[in-house]
Design a protein that fits this description.
Layout: E1 5-15, H1 17-24, E2 28-38, E3 50-58, E4 61-69, E5 90-91, E6 96-98, E7 101-109, H2 117-127, E8 130-137, E9 144-154, H3 157-162, H4 180-195
Antiparallel strand pairs: 1-2, 1-9, 2-3, 3-4, 4-5, 5-7, 6-7, 7-8, 8-9
């Protein structure tokens, strides 16, 4: 089962530039739901492909961004890389088509977050946690800052279990990742979500 263990938060995303226009209709600050997770049932503290899922709540409905832990060098930042620290970096792995250009999304926390989900939740409650969101146009291009993801209050465990993120971003949206990996992800996510009893109706969730 993919990402069976996680912790979710309310939060806020600040976006700028053309990416903001394509995702939520324009620059600004938007409410968000954020989930950090372990990719497999490995023991706490072991290296794992970690996940950062962000649900942006815009005027046209929610848009989900799914990022996985990656390598720091540019040639490795589009490959899933097991990590211990939840600070990242994270990457979209697959490109989005933005104004005719292949654009990869990247994220990294502004400080070390530790190796346990409980530790991340405690740090967020005491000091706050922020991720910088970057966009890179092309496989080797440098990332430019396009936003920030700020964690808010932790959500109840039942809400976390019920969350089901959309690997396509949003149904009907033109801003969707493509390719074989995306087709595999599209097929595997519903199975994993059913395995942890995620709610079919996401409209009642944060």
């Amino acid at each position: 089962m993919l990402h069976p263990r996680g912790v979710s938060f309310g939060g806020e995303v600040e976006l700028s530039g053309v990416l903001a226009e394509r995702l939520v209709g324009g620059p600004g600050r938007y409410p968000a739901t954020v989930r950090l997770s372990r990719g497999t049932p490995t023991p706490a503290g072991w290296p794992d492909v970690l996940g950062l899922a962000v649900r942006l709540h815009g005027a046209d409905g929610p848009f989900d961004l799914l990022l996985s832990s990656t390598g720091r060098p540019r040639l490795l930042r589009h490959l899933p890389v097991p990590r211990r620290d939840f600070a990242g970096p994270y990457g979209s792995l697959l490109a989005y088509r933005v104004d005719g250009r292949r654009t990869y999304l990247l994220a990294a926390a502004d400080r070390p977050l530790g190796t346990s989900l409980a530790g991340v939740a405690a740090l967020a409650a005491r000091h706050g946690v922020r991720f910088d969101l970057l966009a890179a146009e092309g496989f080797r291009a440098p990332g430019r800052l396009v936003g920030r993801v700020v964690l808010g209050a932790r959500l109840p465990a039942g809400t976390d279990a019920a969350l089901a993120f959309d690997p396509d971003g949003r149904r009907g949206s033109g801003l969707r990742p493509r390719g074989l990996i995306q087709r595999l992800r599209r097929a595997s996510y519903p199975v994993s979500q059913r395995g942890r009893n995620a709610a079919e109706d996401q409209s009642r969730l944060p």
